[in-house]
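Retro notes (design track)

What went well: tokenization of the new backbones is finally stable.
What didn't: we kept losing track of which sequence belonged to which structure.
Fix going forward: every design gets posted as structure first, then sequence, in one message. First example under the new rule, 303 residues:
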């Protein structure tokens, strides 16, 4: 394998040469205006070093990547009780699809589609105030990243609240099947703030060390939970493009419509990539290509 710093630098150059960026999420006004022609990549390795290229110090909205942290937090609080309310199977449908929820009588297929993430956050919120649930998720992220400089973008949270009609529909459908414990508006306020957490790729890659089981990672989550979350990232982390991501990249990963991707190379590296332009599935277009390049050039695929 070539020097990792050279590989990452080369990927950054190639992505800019290709200039095939996709389109930022248009249904969230605060994200729609972000310039698409941006790229960042950070890789934390087992030897404790971090390699970065591009705009790795620019914070971006992690959006659905936050579902990984909410899931870890909820599993730590209630354990396997969560699986009575949420499944662990891929959907083959869009992340905000309602039809699959109707078919399954209000039990979401997995915790990474919106309906499943709403139920996961509902389980974390039960018996507490939204600020407490958000503080727990944010506290976990800061501990995993070993950085206190991780915050919520209030403008993005407000933008999501103003345009969150589809998530409200999902929440009320869940409520109609007795799969919510909290008031939908209270719950969705928590969920929108969770999705509006901002991180840089450097911070996000650092946070993934616990999932990658790197020797320098903070001891804040159990190996059992890390393995289970990795399995779900592999099978469900890119919505209805999860199979294609596994085929092309061969590593567990979780995308977000802010253009970020968190990727785990077990016992080798934790990887974060960001480019805000999306493909038709809602995943970072340039970021997905970069992930495939990195996996090919390093040989880190689990297959």
């Amino acid at each position: 394998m070539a020097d990792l710093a050279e590989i990452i630098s080369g990927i950054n150059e190639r992505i800019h040469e290709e200039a095939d960026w996709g389109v930022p999420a248009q249904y969230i006004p605060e994200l729609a205006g972000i310039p698409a022609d941006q790229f960042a990549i950070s890789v934390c390795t087992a030897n404790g070093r971090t390699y970065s290229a591009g705009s790795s110090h620019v914070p971006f909205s992690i959006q659905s990547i936050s579902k990984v942290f909410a899931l870890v937090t909820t599993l730590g609080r209630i354990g396997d009780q969560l699986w009575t309310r949420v499944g662990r199977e891929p959907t083959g449908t869009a992340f905000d699809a309602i039809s699959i929820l109707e078919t399954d009588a209000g039990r979401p297929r997995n915790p990474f589609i919106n309906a499943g993430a709403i139920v996961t956050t509902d389980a974390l919120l039960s018996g507490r105030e939204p600020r407490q649930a958000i503080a727990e998720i944010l506290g976990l992220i800061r501990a995993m990243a070993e950085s206190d400089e991780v915050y919520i973008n209030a403008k993005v949270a407000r933008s999501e609240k103003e345009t969150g009609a589809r998530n409200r529909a999902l929440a009320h459908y869940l409520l109609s099947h007795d799969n919510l414990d909290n008031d939908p508006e209270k719950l969705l306020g928590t969920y929108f703030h969770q999705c509006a957490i901002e991180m840089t790729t450097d911070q996000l890659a650092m946070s993934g060390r616990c999932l990658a089981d790197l020797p320098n990672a903070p001891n804040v989550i159990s190996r059992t939970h890390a393995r289970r979350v990795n399995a779900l990232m592999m099978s469900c982390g890119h919505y209805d493009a999860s199979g294609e991501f596994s085929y092309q990249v061969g590593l567990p990963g979780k995308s977000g419509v802010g253009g970020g991707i968190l990727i785990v190379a077990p016992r080798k590296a934790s990887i974060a990539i960001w480019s805000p332009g999306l493909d038709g599935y809602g995943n970072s277009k340039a970021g997905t290509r970069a992930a495939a390049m990195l996996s090919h050039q390093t040989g880190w695929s689990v297959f």
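Added context from the reviewer: Strands lie at 40-45, 50-54, 60-61, 151-152, 197-199, 253-255, 260-265, 269-274.
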